[in-house]
Design brief:
Length: 177
């Protein structure tokens, strides 16, 4: 079985900017440079032959290159407490269009379409119950922005879960038109 997802790897200068914002929240499990990505579609556990079909389907996608930029820091909450800190992305439309193409391609490979609304973001940290307040971080870095950066490809990743956190490896890179 392979645990797969499709994502964009931000350029080094954007990853460095994101890494510089991290810290100051007790109990947060911060992402490392190798873990920073912008998810286009989480696939989950699949058999090897399904992974091969997904790879072939993704290779048939045509989508123009585009530019995006960082746009603020926020969090996903569960039961009134932040559980994930993330950096937002603007504009969202080219990402949503690419997400839809990827979702359709993966469905043709036999994986059920994603039913959740797509919100483009880059995860910065996961927070456990009892983690420190995120208020100071949001006050300091919540207005995070960047110059636009080019998106010229997306990747199929495999995720390996370890006690120290997830380890991601790029299976294949797909160039945009």
């Amino acid at each position: 079985m392979h645990r797969l997802f499709v994502a964009i790897r931000p350029p080094r200068h954007i990853r460095e900017q994101l890494l510089a914002t991290m810290g100051g929240v007790r109990g947060a499990r911060w992402q490392t440079d190798d873990q920073l990505h912008l998810t286009l579609r989480f696939i989950g556990e699949v058999e090897s032959h399904v992974g091969d079909d997904i790879h072939a389907a993704l290779g048939a996608i045509h989508h123009p290159r585009f530019e995006i930029a960082l746009d603020g820091i926020s969090g996903f909450e569960r039961r009134g407490q932040a559980e994930t800190l993330w950096a937002g992305i603007t504009p969202q439309e080219p990402l949503k269009t690419l997400h839809n193409k990827i979702d359709q391609a993966i469905a043709r490979a036999g994986v059920a379409p994603d039913q959740r609304a797509y919100l483009p973001h880059i995860t910065l940290a996961r927070l456990k119950r009892g983690s420190g307040s995120i208020s100071a971080l949001l006050e300091r870095s919540g207005g995070l922005t960047s110059a636009p950066f080019a998106v010229g490809s997306f990747c199929l990743y495999e995720s390996h879960l370890t006690p120290e956190g997830a380890v991601y490896s790029i299976v294949e890179r797909y160039d945009l038109d």
